[in-house]
TrEMBL record, chains A, B:
Signal peptide: none annotated. It holds the Pfam family MiaE_2. It comes from the Bacteria. SUPFAM superfamilies: Ferritin-like. It comes from Nocardioides caeni. This is Hydroxylase. InterPro entries: Ferritin-like, Ferritin-like_SF, Ferritin_actino.
């Protein structure tokens, strides 16, 4: 999939629409990392032990370390990174505003589900990008080192208190719903980015049927992650 | 100074008192970094722009990145890093509890004054350490890249609102007072660490008169930093 798309992928230099889409993509990822830092740093305060707090602080630092490379690429395009991120502040801030974790476990599930969704989306879009951009996007994906940490903590919490499982299952559904709502809002506002995914003229994107299948895959993987956490999806 | 002390510096393997002092030193630095992360991440929320927020988030990440090496060394001594940090949690948490910044500027001054004091102290103690430990302690010092950022922001703030200068000058004195109070508490509780600084048997530390001169130097440098910020010390 990656190879076949690569042969026809436009470069960001050649095609202004593709370039606008890439600028949007890098900017939304960068702003996502900044808010992930904030969210994880905030969750660290809820940590039941200093070791847990340090783990979350380290996760937060990994997110922020990725921002600089994305901003450098935006600057190389002659774009101010903060202007590029501006259109994505409201939808991403609203996502976080509507999904503020009430406790340590909700924070863990949000980090796990949110990173998982973001990584799945990056993987889906990567095939439609030129090699340079794809490399940057893939580098923004989680190393996955903290997945085991979250799964272990959440499963242990549910083992101790079975009601927690029911509450977190509802929480996971709410996270997915809010994420889709805000993603839809971004798609409606950002034509070039949407066109890249949906398959505009001369772009090797998805058609609308394929877009539907992509959302189905994202939803399925979300449900798999909920199951890994020991939660009903 | 560094060379002459080095010739007689004991190694952490040979001398149990020196080893206890080094364990305390690495642990207090590590816990200091963790709380510096928390403080900077919290201050990032007060940032007047997204660019300022990102700068603070990056400073926070630099602090947390240093913790792992300190913890590794503690583990190499057969010490649990979280047990080693435990005695320093109350004094450092109290320092932060008593000096919670009320706004963006107080946060900036606290970061600048706090990092400056910590670096001066590390520089003072470095001469009495074996080469391996000294290298770790020196690596924990700030790269100093964000000093210019803070000085520029604080000076611009004072230029806009002169009353700010008076308030921040008082704030700087309070920070120094709280830091000395908690440092004294640590010194009273941790005999080996104090002995390393004050010059116990077989240790190339300072005598009490030299300790007094060290505090004078720390205070002088604090006043220099306040002046750099455009504040009366």
């Amino acid at each position: 999939m990656v190879e076949s798309a690569d042969a026809t992928a436009p470069t960001a230099d050649a095609d202004p629409d593709y370039r606008a889409a890439v600028v949007d993509l890098l900017a939304v990822i960068a702003y996502g990392e900044i808010t992930a830092f904030e969210r994880l740093a905030e969750d660290a305060k809820l940590a039941p032990s200093l070791a847990d707090k340090l783990d979350l602080a380290q996760m937060a630092s990994i997110e922020i370390a990725k921002v600089e490379r994305l901003h450098e690429r935006l600057r190389a395009f002659g774009v101010d990174p903060f202007e590029a991120m501006a259109p994505f502040r409201a939808p991403i801030d609203e996502f976080h505003g509507h999904t503020a974790p009430a406790d340590w476990y909700e924070g863990l599930v949000k980090a796990y589900v949110g990173d998982g969704l973001a990584n799945d989306f990056y993987r889906e879009i990567a095939a439609y990008l030129d090699a340079d951009t794809r490399e940057l996007v893939v580098a923004s994906m989680e190393a996955g080192t903290h997945s085991a940490f979250v799964v272990e903590r959440v499963r242990a919490g549910i083992a101790e208190d079975h009601r927690l499982g029911g509450r977190l299952a509802l929480w996971g559904r709410r996270l997915m719903g809010e994420a889709l709502t805000q993603a839809q809002r971004v798609a409606a506002d950002r034509d070039e980015l949407s066109a890249l995914l949906a398959g505009g003229v001369d772009r090797p994107g998805l058609d609308l049927a394929a877009l539907g299948r992509m959302f189905t895959r994202l939803t399925e993987r979300h449900m798999e992650r909920m199951t890994e956490l020991g939660l009903e999806a």
